[in-house]
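We were asked to recover a plausible sequence for a given structure. The inputs and outputs are reproduced exactly as logged, with field labels preserved.

PROBLEM: sequence recovery
POSITIONS: 389
GIVEN STRUCTURE:
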């Protein structure tokens, strides 16, 4: 029986994907795998038997990736599972920024006891006049699962859309509507856009992407939308830009001590993926990723190890190995098994940066001594034997 620890409530539709070979435990210390949403794991002690963590969502800032990689723990996320939910909130953000809907709603609330409200509103509504988004230009920084959804939806609403992504894959490019223009430099996007939305992961390279320098290159009165991660935008630069009017509106899903006090900000409390559909999609995807890894060794959508699959073939077992990416590792795995008289009918090895992952089909199940020899190879962080018999 494999033990799964849920650090947050996980949608029932996902939990139902676990069969009776799995049990749910409240004790992290005895877990083989973890399902998590927003709970922080940075200060938790990760047990030696923990082999995988699946985040039911896209961002993994709450997971200590370096520590997991050192221990050979594979971390998964669920890219695209909540894309539609976030896309719809971004569209709502653009409409709220274009039309002073928020101001109008507050006016009604403030006048809810006014017997003449139906007449007075005809005079008051002028102060809430806005503009339409049709014909305006939207810049999309980051054309991943969410960025593409936003770009295509905005294009469908009659906006001119410019996209930027230095790592745009062929598959992603093919999913973009043909009328969307993709630029090679983000600076080519700044000066042309009435609205700019950012959809990139928070990395050292992306932290503070929207800063004083980038804002200075934008149109006067630009609207900036951040429904990705709060630290992608420099709060001090945004405060100054809003005060000066350089930025007309800042729409963010990440209120903090600074943004909550800024003028011309509409902040929502991290509602991007807070839909029943998104939570269900993320839960189902996370559970499927965990089961696939535990039962077959296959990796899909890991954030710290490369994707790696092996076509299913008859064999006694599959050995999965996480290790540091360095020369001669595969030959050492092969020679260790060969010395034990174990034939390898099929193998797959993938690397990503400093990490590597290997799946090895074997005609015989290795002894504990052979498994110990594999673990003893310098650079190996974890060895699992998945019995197929």
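RECOVERED SEQUENCE:
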């Amino acid at each position: 029986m494999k033990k799964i620890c849920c650090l947050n409530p996980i949608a029932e539709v996902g939990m139902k994907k676990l069969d009776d070979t799995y049990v749910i435990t409240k004790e992290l210390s005895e877990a083989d795998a973890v399902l998590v949403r927003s709970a922080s794991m940075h200060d938790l002690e990760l047990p030696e038997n923990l082999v995988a963590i699946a985040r039911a969502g896209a961002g993994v800032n709450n997971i200590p990736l370096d520590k997991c990689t050192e221990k050979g723990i594979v971390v998964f996320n669920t890219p695209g599972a909540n894309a539609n939910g976030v896309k719809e909130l971004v569209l709502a953000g653009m409409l709220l920024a274009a039309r002073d809907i928020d101001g109008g709603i507050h006016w009604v609330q403030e006048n809810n006891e006014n017997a003449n409200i139906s007449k007075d509103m005809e005079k008051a509504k002028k102060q809430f006049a806005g503009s339409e988004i049709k014909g305006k230009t939207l810049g999309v920084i980051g054309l991943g699962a969410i960025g593409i959804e936003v770009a295509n939806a905005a294009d469908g609403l009659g906006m001119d859309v410019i996209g930027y992504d230095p790592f745009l894959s062929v598959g992603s490019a093919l999913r973009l509507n043909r009328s969307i223009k993709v630029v090679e430099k983000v600076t080519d996007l700044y000066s042309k856009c009435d609205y700019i939305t950012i959809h990139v992961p928070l990395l050292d390279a992306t932290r503070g992407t929207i800063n004083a320098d980038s804002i200075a290159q934008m149109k006067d009165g630009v609207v900036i939308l951040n429904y990705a991660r709060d630290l992608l935008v420099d709060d001090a630069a945004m405060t100054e830009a809003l005060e000066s009017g350089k930025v007309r509106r800042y729409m963010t899903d990440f209120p903090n001590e600074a943004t909550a006090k800024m003028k011309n900000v509409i902040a929502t409390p991290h509602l991007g993926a807070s839909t029943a559909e998104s939570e269900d999609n993320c839960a189902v995807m996370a559970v499927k990723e965990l089961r696939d890894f535990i039962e077959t060794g296959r990796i899909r959508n890991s954030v710290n190890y490369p994707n790696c699959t092996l076509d299913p073939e008859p064999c006694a077992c599959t050995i999965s190995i996480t290790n540091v990416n360095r020369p001669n590792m595969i030959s050492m795995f092969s020679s260790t098994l060969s010395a034990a008289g174990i034939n390898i009918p099929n193998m797959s090895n993938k690397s990503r940066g400093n990490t590597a992952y290997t799946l090895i089909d074997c005609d015989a199940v290795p002894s504990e001594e052979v498994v110990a020899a594999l673990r003893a190879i310098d650079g190996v962080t974890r060895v699992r034997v998945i019995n197929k018999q």
